[in-house]
Design a protein that fits this description.
With 254 residues, the protein is α+β, with helices and mostly antiparallel strands. Helices cover 28% and strands 34% of the residues. The strands form four sheets. Strands 1, 2, 3, 6, 7 and 10 form a six-stranded mixed β-sheet that branches. A four-stranded antiparallel β-sheet has the order 5-4-8-9. Strands 11-14 form a two-stranded antiparallel sheet. One of its GO terms (cellular component) is plasma membrane. It is a multi-pass membrane protein. Its main location: membrane.
Length: 254
């Protein structure tokens, strides 16, 4: 029976012996064995493929920068960090989320030990979706809606919070969803730093080259150490003084 089962499932031939119409039971068993064999092989192929293409394996090639930085961009404070993909196959429909988790005490005295606040982030823009074809800078603008708005450089170091970052996308080759996570503590946020460029254009070949050895490198830039709120107040006061000075000046022309 075992030999008959193996010969039927793997279609290696029966040799001199074979089933005939005189034995309908053997024909029924052969059909049942063929159907069962096809199902077993299909399940085994699916299990092996799913094992080899697990999303967890894909997340090992997704990189987050070791530190986040705060510097000015277009006159605004911005919290920035890098994400990168080491594989040639791309992550499509990639988007990023960031949440600041810290302790909060409500007006009624209730203690919320893990209060979560959403940070508005995007890849050099306003949207959370990113065009993930090379290492991308993720930017959070620190404005009046940001929980980092009242913190100066010194106050940021004394605060206790954690910024959790989640990168999600669809694996191009398998269509499966993958997710990678990282986080930044206050001592991992560098105030007055900026990331070094790592994408260069080669005129000889007409191609862009990514140097991942510079992925975590930063350099210092001139950045005020006051909070974004204080900086906005100073600018508003300066603008108000300039406006009063302009309206209060005598008219030189009749």
């Amino acid at each position: 029976c075992f030999l008959f089962s193996v010969e039927t499932q793997h279609t290696i031939g029966y040799g001199a012996k074979h089933t005939t119409e005189e034995c309908p039971e053997a024909i029924f068993v052969m059909c049942l064995q063929s159907i069962t064999g096809v199902m077993i092989q299909a399940f085994m192929v699916g299990i092996v493929f799913a094992k080899l293409s697990r999303p967890k394996k894909r997340t090992q090639t997704l990189l987050f920068s070791r530190n986040a930085v705060i510097c000015q961009r277009d006159g605004y404070y911005c919290l920035m960090f890098r994400v990168g993909d080491m594989r040639k196959s791309h992550i499509v429909e990639a988007h990023v989320r960031a949440q600041l988790i810290r302790k909060k005490v409500t007006k009624e005295g209730e203690v919320l030990p893990y209060y979560q606040q959403e940070l508005r982030v995007g890849g050099d823009g306003e949207e959370d979706k990113i065009f993930f074809i090379w290492p991308t800078m993720i930017v959070h603008r620190i404005d009046h809606t940001s929980p980092l708005y009242p913190f100066s450089a010194a106050e940021l170091c004394r605060e206790r919070f954690e910024i959790v970052v989640i990168l999600e996308g669809v694996i191009e080759s398998t269509g499966m969803t993958t997710q990678a996570r990282s986080s930044f503590l206050p001592n991992e946020i560098l105030w007055g730093h900026r990331f070094e460029p790592l994408v260069t254009f080669k005129k000889e070949t007409g191609e862009y080259e990514v140097d991942y050895s510079l992925f975590n490198n930063t350099y210092e830039v001139n950045t005020p150490t006051c909070s974004a709120k204080t900086l906005d107040d100073m600018r508003s006061m300066q603008s108000h003084q300039n406006s009063n000075s302009k309206h209060g000046s005598p008219n030189k022309y009749p």
